[in-house]
Design a protein that fits this description.
The protein is an alpha+beta fold and 118 residues long. It folds into 2 domains: 80 residues, no CATH class; 29 residues, no CATH class. The protein is built from 4 helices and 2 strands. Strands 1-2 form a two-stranded parallel ribbon. Helix 1 packs across helix 2. It is globular and about 40 Å long.
């Protein structure tokens, strides 16, 4: 399941998102695989800490470091994200949200190139 999260609510934070996901998982038991993509890695970690899960998967996600905000983590480890990632984004709106406007760039900058052996 992929519950609808209030991404248009500027007051919603990772805890809000995790609360909503845990509510959606109510009654599912521990046969759950939690998948976090991109910034959803922070929410996924909170969900897995609050709700029994069989697996926690980070899919091209920011993996939270204990005791650090994601901003602090990026400042300490600037190489954890592609330095050019913002080049494919729109200008921020009034709530500072952006969207991908260059899908080819987004794909190239966020998907690693894997070479398969012959």
């Amino acid at each position: 399941m992929a519950p609808e999260l209030p991404s248009d609510d500027a007051s919603a934070d990772f805890d809000t998102y995790a609360d909503m996901v845990c509510e959606a998982l109510h009654g599912c038991g521990n046969d759950v695989v939690v998948v976090g993509h991109s910034l959803g890695g922070a929410t996924a970690a909170l969900v897995a800490a609050r709700n029994p899960a069989r697996h926690l998967v980070y899919l091209c996600a920011a993996v939270p470091e204990a005791g650090l905000s994601l901003l602090d983590q990026w400042q300490e480890h600037p190489d954890m994200a592609n330095a050019n990632w913002a080049k494919g984004l729109s200008e921020p709106d009034e709530q500072l949200r952006t969207v991908w406007v260059d899908y080819d760039f987004a794909r190239e900058s966020s998907t690693p190139t894997v070479t398969m052996p012959p």
